[in-house]
Amino acid sequence: MKQELAISIKDVCFSYSGPRVLEHINLEVYRGEFLGLVGPNGGGKSTLLKIILGLLRPLSGQVSVLGLSPKRGRAAIGYVPQHTVFPEDFPISVEAAVLQGRLGKTRLIGGYTREDRAFARRAMEQVEILELSACPLAALSGGQCQRVLIARALAMEPEILILDEPTAHVDLRLEENFFHLLRQLNQQMTIIVVSHDVGFISHYVNRVACLNQTLICHETAAVSGEIIKQLYGASVRMIDHTH
Ligand SMILES: Nc1ncnc2c1ncn2[C@@H]1O[C@H](COP(=O)(O)OP(=O)(O)OP(=O)(O)O)[C@@H](O)[C@H]1O
């Protein structure tokens, strides 16, 4: 059976204004895949995600998302950004934050509909934060905040979920819970997750793409600490959390 493409990246090059950040990147992500994207600091991971989201235009090459241009395909992508910190006095509840995920989908005037609230509720149920729905964001732990951000992305009914270092600020136990959650979500949607921890994510993902200006994909079984160290130096963590 022919697999359907979720994302296609062909021969993409990019630079901000100075040297090339991405060189001739080729990547095909299939529907239903769970892809890990790893690489050293400054390797170009966030830049590649921004190109997929249509926020940056490549210097050359082609990108399509579900057969559409990245700008048009963006409506199908739930994006969980890196390093989102809510200010201490941010006066907004968990439910209000999750409802923001409906902004591109709902009517422009008249506020959220009953349907929007049902989507937000379902998203909060999926990531097990429904009991926190009235809490102010400022009262949440790092792990709970990450779940709110995922719920916000899920509320928009995405076909593709992209997460940029979602567990950078959570401890190992929460990280494990979190990846179990992603594995469940992967039954309904394509997932790309950026991480610095190859050893850990290779227990969960189908394939690991290593990006350091150029990109090489490995089936998870083929990823060893030695390969990663040779290609990308010591800044990628290769910790085996085998249980
Ligand atoms: N807005 C920008 N303007 C100029 N250069 C940038 C900009 N954003 C990123 N860069 C540069 O592009 C390169 C790739 O950065 P990018 O943030 O994509 O890497 P990354 O792999 O996501 O890194 P990290 O793991 O540290 O988050 C780096 O050299 C960075 O300094």
Automatic annotation (TrEMBL):
Q: Name one GO molecular function term.
A: ATP binding
Answer yes or no on keyword Disulfide bond.
no
| Keyword entries, A-Z | ATP-binding, Nucleotide-binding, Transport
Q: Which Gene3D superfamilies match?
A: P-loop containing nucleotide triphosphate hydrolases
Q: Which CDD domains match?
A: ABC_Metallic_Cations
Query: Per the database record, which ranges form the ABC transporter domain?
Result: 7-238
Top-level taxon in the UniProt lineage: Bacteria
Q: Which PROSITE patterns match?
A: ABC_TRANSPORTER_1 (PS00211), ABC_TRANSPORTER_2 (PS50893)
**Signal peptide as annotated in the record:** none
So what family is this one in?
Belongs to the ABC transporter superfamily.
User: What protein name is recorded for this chain?
Assistant: ABC transporter related protein
